[in-house]
Amino acid sequence: MVNEWLPVFIFMIIMSVVVFVILAGTAFIGPKRPNPVKLSPYECGVEPVGEPRTRFSIKFYMIAMLFIIFDLEVIFFYPWAVVFKRFLSGSSFILIEMLIFVGILLVGYVYAWKKGALEWQ
Amino acid sequence: MVTVLLYLFGILAILSALGMVFHRNPVYSALFLVVTFFSLASIYALLGAQFLSIIQVMVYAGAIMVLFVFVIMLLNLRKEVRLPIGKPAQVIFGVIFGLLLFVEGLLIIKSGSISGTLGRYPQAKVNVIGNVEALGNLLFTKYLFPFELASIILLVGMIGAIILGRKKMPKEL
After folding, report:
1. What pTM value is reported for the model?
2. Rounded to a whole number, what is the distance in Å from the CA of B162 to chain A's nearest CA?
3. What CATH number does domain A2-114 carry, 3.40.50.1000, 3.90.1300.10, 1.10.10.10, 1.20.58.1610?
4. Best of B59, B60, B133, B154 to mutate (most A CBs within 10 Å, chain A)
5. For B59-112, how does the pLDDT look when each residue is reduced to its tens digit (9 = 90+)?
6. Rounded to 10 degrees, what is the CA torsion of A25, A31, A32, A38?
7. Residue from A93, A110, A99, A112 nearest B148 by CA
8. What is the distance between the alpha carbons of residues B14 and B40, in angstroms, rounded to a whole number?
9. Residues of A in contact with B157 (CB under 8 A)
10. What ipTM does this complex have?
11. For residues B81 and B24, what is the distance between their CA atoms, to the nearest angstrom?
């Protein structure tokens, strides 16, 4: 069973090594000649006051919530897509099942659209 | 090989979970949580639960973490300030219930496997046809009604999020 996952693990290991090498490479090899002007946030302009971390608008959160709900919808598509072809040879009922599922969620999508949740004033 | 990897990811999960709890910067805590989710996904994969593993990465490491990061930014958390530990009664109850939970976990592990009657998809069959297919077979036949109900639950969640989000919005512009 490990053999099936071996490519995934090899991929993950190579990925981590590449990330580490790139980050370490830029940190160690790259030239560093700092001077006060270079390190200031704005070379010309007003000195920054206060903290850069401010409160974000709730709009970001709305988009994130909608994203999660549609993400969960996609999760159901995955086993559906796997068994789809075999089920379809019997009857097209599986297609209707998914159409009902998507149809119900489409109501929510239309609602979000009409309520302006997707708009960015 | 499997055992070694299981221990490796188990240790990684525990270490990153500890890092998540003890780190003072909430954004770093969130990133530690991503590592925990990924190591849990690897453990699921090693145990043969491919679907669960993919869901873990897609939903938890993907969507839920986005939500967590947004919450951190919404609340405008700074570096955490250590508050003095609460009243002695709180500490005593915390320790007692923590120990109880630990003992319960130990008992479950000691009792061995979970017993029960086998359904249409015992482990041997699932190993042959694969996790996702076994789930699909049942979800779109026997558990069709719960599957359709899930869409209604998602719809309710969506509408609730929109209503709550709209109400809080100030009348701007």
Report:
1. 0.74
2. 7
3. 1.20.58.1610
4. B154
5. 888 888 888 888 887 776 666 666 676 778 888 998 999 999 999 999 888 887
6. -110
7. A99
8. 10
9. 65, 69
10. 0.70
11. 8
> What does the domain layout of chain A look like in residue ranges?
2-114
Q: Enumerate residues 6+ apart whose C-beta is below 8 A from B140.
A: A79, A80, A83, A87, A94, A97, B147
Name the one residue in this structure whose structure tokens are 């993950």. Answer: A12
Q: What is the 3 state secondary structure string of B87-155? A: CHHHHHHHHHHHHHHHHHHHHHHHCCCCCCCCCCCCHHHHHHHCHHHHHHHHHCCCCHHHHHHHHHHHH
Instruction: Give A72's contacts in chain B (Cβ within 8 Å).
Output: 59, 63, 154
Q: What does the block give as tokens for B104?
A: 């319960």
Q: What is the CA radius of gyration of chain A?
A: 25
**What are the Cα distances from residue B115, in Å, to B47, B53, B108, B112, B118?**
18, 23, 12, 9, 9
Helix, strand, coil share (%) of chain A residues, nearest 5: 70, 0, 30
Please write the tens of the pLDDT for every residue from B35-56. 999 999 989 988 888 889 989 9
